[in-house]
Structures are given as C-alpha cells and as structure tokens.
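Make up an example, fold above all:
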Amino acid sequence: MRLVEHIEAPFVGRPGADELPMASDLMRDVDAAASYLQDLGGLVKELGLAAKIELDDAAAGEDRAYAQGRLMALREVVSPMQQQADRIGQ
C-alpha cells in the first residue's frame, strides 16, 4: 500500500472529505498544539529540577546511580526540544 493511500483511506467516503479545513479550525489546532507544547515543556522542566534535587540528595550506591540515570534521560529529552526551539526562534 502506498503511503498516500494509507493516509487518505480514513477520509474516503466521508461528507466533505474533499473540502479543505476552515482557517479557524487550523488556527484552533495550532493554538492547541502551542498550548500542549508549552505545558509539556514546563512539566519536563519540573521533572528535571526534581531529578537534580534527588541526585544532590542521593547517597552513594544504587540510589545515586538511579538518580544520575534519571537526570541523564531527562537531559536527553530536553536537548532536542531546546534545539528545535532555537531553530524556530522560540
């Protein structure tokens, strides 16, 4: 199956499937996406700050290794988010 067929298949036969979405619908989607990304960024930041505090408070051993791994994983998530934000000028 071609990719185009796979994408178009759910819309075949629906009323108005050939019509373009209204500009207001597109703007609502953009606003929703922007809000989602802003909320997600804040949540990831909070998780990162909490992970840093846990690492600072962790004793040597397994607790410290876990805290280090968690902080590293969050940094792996934040790094591409920051790079993409820089690219789009945010």
Observations:
- The chain has a mean pLDDT of 79.
- The chain is about 75% helix and 0% strand.
- Residues 23-57 form the longest helix (35 residues).
